[in-house]
Fold this sequence. Notes:
This protein has 176 residues and is mostly helical. Helix content is 90%, strand content 0%.
Amino acid sequence: xxxxxxxxxxxxxxxxxxxxxxxxxxxxxxxxxxxxxxxxxxxxxxxxxxxxxxxxxxxxxxxxxxxxxxxxxxxxxxxxxxxxxxxxxxxxxxxxxxxxxxxxxxxxxxxxxxxxxxxxxxxxxxxxxxxxxxxxxxxxxxxxxxxxxxxxxxxxxxxxxxxxxxxxxxxxxxxx
Length: 176
């Protein structure tokens, strides 16, 4: 029984390591997003100060309108560039997280099923049909978990693409 306990402890240890990796990815990507937001905010603030100074020296209302229009266009471009950069960070992070979760699901389920198989092999079951039924159930479960993992990864990636397309204003073909 200690071998089985050790196997389950090993699965728990690997799950904890994956959780730590997931937390690290989240922290790193959050820092990147914050850096982009701060850079955009700082740039917009500096531009608004420069714009205010420039407007103070303009007496012609038409020139003032033109300057405000350029400032608004420049600000919008910077905001959209920041949003695209954040969307790219999010897409990359979602890909990394999806890969990590998929690997963890596949590896953990295989290890748990392997431990269950070993547990059943150690039991004194004399009926061959019972052993075959247990083996078939384990194989079916393993296949179902693998299919679920693949489907989850594909759905997550499709969702990520849709989200990025909406954020960047691009459709799936890449046109605006």
